[in-house]
Design brief:
193 residues, mainly alpha, Hypothetical protein af1432, globular
Amino acid sequence: MRTLEISQKLRKELQETLKPDRFDHTLGVAYTAAALAFAHGADAEKALIAGMLHDCAKCMSHDEQIKICEKNNIEISDVEKRNHSLLHAKVGMYLARTKYDVYDTEILNAIRWHTTGREDMSLLEKIVYIADFIEPNRKPLEGMDIIRKEAFTDIDRCLSHILHDSVIYLDTIGKEVDEATNNAYQYYKKYYK
């Protein structure tokens, strides 16, 4: 099946399962990821598919996500048990494979790491992580214009900028920083200085 056919099929299925605002965000991430892929010489088709599926589990309840993980031996950290916004990436990777028939490891990993990031991310992982943050439907945050420019000109600086701001924000509001996010921040912070 060609990418356009896959994209149209996913779009139709996701429109039926996601809430309207989540669907709009999903399209924004998919198209932003494809644009970033063009800019950085990555596979735009994979970026589009990963962007389409990155939040495919987001509308599920936290309890549903935990049950899927337990049933399928997907490891859950204590932070993921306490923070409902983290687990959807792992469950999304699982659904991409089992419900949407995506078996490409690069795409699955981009879905898996789009929320926390990790050390030594692949180009596609960086693209989906950044696209999730900068897509046009996102509420503009302080410095968003700079981050969006960096996304197309210096992807590692952009990634480190987002990680830096995220860690500072989570610390400011008293939320735990996931170990993968902290490791990614430590790994990439040299690009932000």
